[in-house]
Amino acid sequence: MSPFIESNDAAERAHAHAVEIDPLRQDLLGEALTHAHLPPPRKRPFVIALLALGSALGLGGWHHWQTYRTSLETQEDVISFVPTVRTVSAVEDDEPMRLTLPGQTEAFDHADIFARATGYIAERRVDIGSRVKKGDLLVRIAAPDLDQQKSQAEAQLGQLQAQLAVAHADVEQAKANVTLANATDARTSTLAGQGWASKQTADQTRAQMLTATAALTAADAKVKVAEANITAQQATVDRLRTLTTFENVTAPFDGIVVARMVDVGDLVHADLGSGASLFSIESTDVLRVSVQVPQSAAVHIRDGVRATIQVAQMPERSFEGTVSRSSVALRSSVRTLDTEVDVANPDGALRPGLYVNVTFAVPRAHPGLQIPSEALIFDAAGTQVAVVQPDDTVKLHPITISRDLGTTLELRSGLKGGDTVVLNPPADLRDGSRIVPKGSVSSGEPVAKLSVQASAE
User: Fold this and answer.
1) What pLDDT does residue 389 have?
2) Residues 6+ apart with CB under 8 A from 30
3) Is residue 292 domain-resident?
4) With 157 labelled, which of 79, 175, 283, 313 sits at a CA distance of 20 to 30 A?
5) Is residue 99 situated within a structural domain?
């Protein structure tokens, strides 16, 4: 018989005997009997758990060792890493600088036409957009008052001319009287000296001679007065005749009528320069392009500098011109130079008032040095570039930027032509760092092209 069966029989006997025991002892006995039913603990689960814990600890230790070994290898690779970089040679550029500025087209000649004769518009021959030649009739003004004033002035001039003729006749008569008086005086003086005439008679003839001479002088003065009156009246007639010519308003030069402020029947007044004009005419065969040049480029702008004009609405065309005049002095408020470029416009493609872009070909005083903008290093030390040394190490050179052209930079100092610089330099690049140049480009290629190639890579 097994020990387990024997223990069960003993438990039953003890239970039967426990009926006769008091309730407290029955409770204690029941608890003891309950523990008597549990089997003894086994060792296998503890062994399995121990083995699992040991395996986990061993696996963790192996993984930690592998991580540590990998970190050592990575650290060694970082210490010994030599980056492969793209490089480009700095290029000296002695071509004219390209400076693009906004501008506005203006008519070469502009005239506001005002009335010089007071009257009504009797006829209008042009309108907005009409092309006119110099001397073409624009409007005809009906001015009857002015016509009557001219006729009256001409009639008065005729009267004065007649008075001049009378004055000349009086002079001739006075000359004749003087001649007669001189002869009579000479004869009387001779007779009085011989005693044939009295002295009183001689004195009277002398007085008559003097009176005739004075009358001749007065007649000459009247002639001069008449001539002066005629001259004054002739000026009045000429002025009125000139004003009557202004009844026909003509074009002062070849151009286009860009504004019309009158129509047939309108009353216009002469010499009102502050009022509204009759027409506005502009010449467009040659246009002025007005540009405000900043101080940074003003010193290089002079007459004869070539310029290219482009209009956004006409991308397929460009117009050539030259700087023809400038204000010489800069505006103190904005530090800009008023500059005008003359552009030939024989086909009328350009119009006054257009917003345009003007690109100047500014001559260089000294060759410029250009590098791609992606070679720039900007940190606490300022603006620098990494220059490749003959032993494939780099040296950081501080630079001064003259102009930022977007994809390229024009330098004022820091490099010389032919220096090889690193494109997109790593952030940890320092003086003396070794590199492996890749994709180096010869210094003869344009910098703009190099920048494009670098971006493509």
Assistant:
1) 86
2) 18
3) no
4) 175
5) no
Q: How many helices (H) and strands (E) does the chain have?
A: 7, 22
Global pTM reads 0.56
Number of domains in the chain: 3
Q: 353 phi and psi, to 5 degrees?
A: 95, 5
Quick one: 165 and 227 in the same domain?
yes
Instruction: Answer whether 288's CB lies under 8 Å from 342's CB.
Output: yes
- Is the domain of 154 the same as that of 235? yes
Q: How confident is the model at residue 27 (pLDDT cuts 50, 70, 90)?
A: low
Given the structure tokens 């003359």, which residue do they identify?
342
Identify the burial level of 195 via C-beta atoms within 10 angstroms of its C-beta, where 0-12 means exposed, 13-18 middle and 19 or more buried.
Answer: exposed
Residue 392 falls inside a structural domain? yes
88 and 170 co-located in one domain: no
Q: Report DSSP letters for 54-67, one per residue.
A: HHHHHHHHHHHHHH
Encoded tokens for 348: 């009328």
Q: For residue 400, what are the domain limits? A: 84-94+367-456
Question: Where residue 337 falls among pLDDT bands split at 50, 70, 90?
Answer: very high
Each residue of 238-292: pLDDT tens digit? 998 988 998 999 999 999 999 999 999 999 888 766 667 899 999 999 999 999 9
